[in-house]
Amino acid sequence: MTSLTALSIASEIFPLIKTGGLADVTGALPTALKPHGIAMRTLIPGYPAVLGGIENPQPVHSFTDLFGSSARLLSARCEELELLVLDAPHLYVRPGNPYVGPDAKDWPDNAFRFAALAQVGARIGQGLLPGFVPDVLHAHDWQAGLLPAYLRYSDRPGPKSVFTIHNLAYQGRFERDLLAPLGLPERAFSLDGVEYWGGIGFLKAGLQLADRITTVSPTYAQEIQNSEAGMGLEGLLRLRADCLSGILNGVDTKVWDPAADELITATYDLETIGARARNKQALQTRFGLKTDPGALLLGVVSRLSWQKGLDILLEVLPGLLAEGTQLALLGSGDAPLEEGFRAAALAHPGQVGAVIGYDEALAHQIQAGADVLLVPSRFEPCGLTQLCALRYGAVPVVARVGGLADTVVDANQMAIATGVATGVQFSPVTAEMLAAALTKTRALYADHTTWRNLQINGMTTDVSWKNPAQHYAKLYRELVDT
């Protein structure tokens, strides 16, 4: 098997900087590709958290002027990850979230912050570092969307590029007058270039100009070619359908392993699944819920947004509580939803608990202790939380969209009879259908044997990166061979 080198270009990576599933993917993929002869390094911005978490940083290149000031490229490690860190303090050394400032608004220079990432990635592909010339460049989401443009409009040869959409809703749109300041020629501002509705579209540029496009589930790859989920880009995606494929995400099964997870109260496996009861009790205590082993306990680990469908959970909550259901929610996001769940917790102590924010350890405890992991998303490119739920024996109840449809086998009569069911799906995403799905879930929960079979089926499902990594390795090799 011929070995290949690849450079991943991303705005976040676990365990250094994470706001969502993108970081989990970029953090797990390099290790998963190693058995397939792919040596991957990752180019990441030098945020304070990144600079503080890397090991043995070594300068490998200096820039006298990278969009306004000098910068360095550092070679470094973090655990098993091989990194290239763009150390540009004028762009990245800022507090808090990597995308928005303390006022909860986008940093006003985000166009330059992430154009720098893409431009440096393209230059590495074109031989900036003689000791590392990757065979393939793999750019992720709008923050790296200009990379194929910098390759296309350069007079220097470069490698083939893959562009992965993790969420089409975030597009990186900026004013047309930034074209020259971003280092792009006038000819780039065209329908078959970076132009998008009279401005510059970072995501659109990636979709238009990359050699191959992937997204994170087969169903989402089909959905985004239609107006309902295409976010205005469905026409372009249909035109490039031959270059578009859906590859499911996986989860890091070392990080997410109920048999060895130090973040949960009691570890367990298939043989000791009864120990989940201790995690349920600990979860109820942590959220101020009544300690009741028989209560159906719903867990939610999510960004609080319209996309995630959590407004309809608030709608159906009174009916659920009347049946004795409990809710443990961890998340943050839109202020009305945050306030709605805070108010529900205050109004229903012992039945509803809400932690507004994010806590990695608590996310693990919810997966290990909740009976159900609820994901009522209106659209979901892949979703990772339901994959973790399967591995931890929390039965996922999900909307039949995107990667949720691809990864959860609905507990219909035939699936139960043939022993393949792993959870509950519902569609369309309405309060009425969510309530019906949870009524069905309560009936399944009352049947101890069926419920235990759902848990076991989930825990034996392969949610690792093994199969996705095979698909990515095959894609890289096809590109290099063309």
UniProtKB/TrEMBL annotation:
According to the UniProt entry, its GO molecular function terms are:
alpha-1,4-glucan glucosyltransferase (ADP-glucose donor) activity
Per the UniProt entry, the Enzyme Commission number(s) are 2.4.1.21
- Pfam family for this entry, one: Glyco_transf_5
NCBIfam families membership:
glgA (TIGR02095), PRK00654.1-2 (NF001899), PRK14099.1 (NF010699)
The protein's name: Glycogen synthase
Specify whether Transit peptide is a keyword of the entry: no
Domain named Starch synthase catalytic: residues: 7-238
Q: Name the keywords, alphabetized.
A: Glycogen biosynthesis, Glycosyltransferase, Transferase
Q: Which reaction does it catalyse?
A: [(1->4)-alpha-D-glucosyl](n) + ADP-alpha-D-glucose = [(1->4)-alpha-D-glucosyl](n+1) + ADP + H(+)
Question: Key word Transcription regulation present in the record?
Answer: no
* UniProt organism field: Rhodopseudomonas telluris
Q: Which residues form the Glycosyl transferase family domain?
A: 289-440
